[in-house]
Structures are given as C-alpha cells and as structure tokens.
C-alpha cells in the first residue's frame, strides 16, 4: 500500500478534519471544499485537489507566503491566509500540522461558550493528564 508523503488530497484533508470537534464541510463557489468550525472557514481546497488555502498565525504569514510554493491567498491575505499553490513541495505531515493550526486559530476566535461546547483542543494534551 503506497502512502503519499508529499502534498495533500481532498480525501486526505477530509479524513484529517473529520475527527476535529465541530468541523463542518461544504461546497462553496461551485467546486471548493470548505472546512469550517463554528461557521467560520479555516481551510479551502478545490474538490479536484491541487492548491489548498488556510489561515496561518499573523507572525508566520510573511515567512510562509515567501516560501516557494506558497503565496498570500487571493482575497483572504488581509485575514492572514496563505495558498499552497505547489502542495507537492511540502510533506503531508507539514501541511496537516499547518491545517491543524488553522483550525485552532479560528476556533480560538469563537465565543468561550461555543469553544466549551466543542470540547478540549487539542485532544492530545487532554489525554496526557
């Protein structure tokens, strides 16, 4: 069984986000998979794959958008989103970590009540207690 160690497919993205509390998935703008938490987007990818866009930390925005294969996301750059236009340049685990960070950033801006309803994040920290 071959596993992709570079890039990320729509199926891998769905599998990654499926277990996170409160994540919803829908299709917007005709052919984009949009992953949200609390009604707020954290990652977008065309249904046929290729590029992926997501929220990043303010302090990492310039660093990441300056890397070969990544750009400031069109229309969302002011909100500190990047677009990975060449996902095969990056390991699947690196992209997965960045997407997890995007989820956490968006989740942290939700109301405290909604965050509490979603449960602990990240779950691995809770298991180590």
TrEMBL record:
Superkingdom of source: Bacteria
SUPFAM superfamilies, per the entry: YjbR-like
One Pfam family recorded for the sequence: YjbR
InterPro entries for this protein: YjbR, YjbR-like_sf, YjbR/MT2646/Rv2570-like
Protein name: MmcQ-like protein
Lineage: Bacteria, Pseudomonadati, Pseudomonadota, Gammaproteobacteria, Lysobacterales
């Amino acid at each position: 069984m071959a596993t992709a160690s570079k890039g990320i497919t729509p199926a891998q993205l769905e599998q990654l986000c499926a277990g996170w509390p409160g994540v919803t998935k829908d299709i917007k703008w005709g052919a984009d998979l949009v992953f949200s938490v609390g009604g707020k987007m954290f990652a977008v990818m065309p249904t046929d794959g290729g590029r992926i866009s997501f929220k990043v930390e303010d302090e990492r925005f310039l660093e990441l958008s300056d890397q070969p294969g990544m750009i400031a996301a069109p229309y969302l750059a002011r909100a500190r989103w990047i677009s990975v236009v060449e996902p095969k340049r990056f390991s699947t685990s690196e992209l997965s970590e960045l997407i997890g960070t995007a989820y956490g950033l968006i989740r942290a801006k939700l109301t405290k009540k909604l965050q509490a309803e979603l449960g602990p994040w990240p779950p691995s920290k809770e298991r180590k207690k």
